[in-house]
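Revision sheet: structure tokens.
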Amino acid sequence: MVYSRIGKGREDEFRGEKILIDLDSYSGVFIDGSYDMAPTGTLQRSMTFAFQSLARRGSELSVLEDARVTACDESPPHYHIRAAKVWLFENGDWAVSNATLYVGVVPLLWLPFFYYPADEIIFHPAIGYASREGSYVQRSEEHTSELQSPNTI
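Predicted:
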């Protein structure tokens, strides 16, 4: 089953083996599927989320259970995050809980909770690959300071 959502300058595609729909509340749950999130904000790549279940919680939030997140285009992906729970916000932000970062099949880092904002904020994590440095996870902080002139006598 495939569901495409077009709006707000992007197109998202949901795929699943089954869908359960409550006609009274117009809410639904995808079972055993995946979701492709188009690039938003500073995120330059599309993200793929594979999940056991995906449920909408209002118009601003989707909750995925037993999920895998990656921005790698290869199959199988070179890296991914497996999480017990993933929250996808309408503005492009996402968060995970009880997650493990894998490089290939090797678990590299356990994350009890991780939040990735779509827009620039004071603290903004960056995950990527550079030909010289290789794969990296880094953080950037925005510092504001005023130049102070030395005291003169």
